[in-house]
Amino acid sequence: MGKALEPTLNTAQNAPEPASGVNEDYSRAIASARIACYDDFRSAPRVTEIAPTTTAEFIENLASTIYTQAQQAGGSIPYTAIREVSENFIHAQFKEIVVSIFDKGNTIRFTDQGPGIPQKEKAQMPGFSSATSDMKRYIRGVGSGLPLVKEYLSFSHGRITIEDNIKCGSVVTISVKPEEDFDVPKGAPTREQRKQMVPALSDREKDVLYLFLDQPTLRVTDIVEELGLAASSAHRALKKLEEAGLISTVGKMRQVTDEGLRVIDALF
């Protein structure tokens, strides 16, 4: 009977695990990330490298670069969705991050070689989280990130998929349907025109309004806890949104209006 071959250093099962891309307390990314932007699949992508830096700055640099390149390619995936998925890389310890942008910026694939996401359905449901106390210094860590992305994408004719990477890690793909694929009535405003029709809102007011995409009715305490705002700041933002006709007060709750939903669609 033939002797079984011993694994060599070149075999997949004996390959070393990717080194962690973050230091021990998660305060600093110590590995770079790569962004590949494809014009089409007949030519090599343009590759951008995001250098290691502090965790907060690394996530911001990564998300903003992805967003800028996707927008320049003609995509309409909002920064908020890109940021939420980028933050999720902390669970993979920033191991071997590669982000691919294609389909004219309307599809973005986020891959890593971390521990993976065994329970993919639960990862898309509110409240399920594996965030540690160290991670929560840089992300909310309450299990709201991917559910928010899923809700936005379903609202915008898009979708999110979560798959296993080839050897280890996860592949998260988010995509939206290009606007030209919709049956838009003749003379209807484009997305860019709709953006120009929305009231002037601060970044904080936009953040508050975005929460109503996931929950059409919210308490002030929900907003305070989700965004980490002072109660007075939340009340000021809500007052501005109500004056603009984007939300209304129902008892002790705030409810998004039809106009608010239109503005959410235009902004995000």
From TrEMBL:
The keyword Kinase applies. Gene3D superfamilies: Histidine kinase-like ATPase, C-terminal domain (3.30.565.10), Winged helix-like DNA-binding domain superfamily/Winged helix DNA-binding domain (1.10.10.10). Coiled coil: none annotated. Residues 1-23 are annotated as: Disordered. Keywords: Kinase, Transferase. It comes from the Bacteria. Residues 73-180 form the Histidine kinase/HSP90-like ATPase domain. This is Histidine kinase. It comes from Slackia isoflavoniconvertens. The lineage of its organism: Bacteria, Bacillati, Actinomycetota, Coriobacteriia, Eggerthellales.
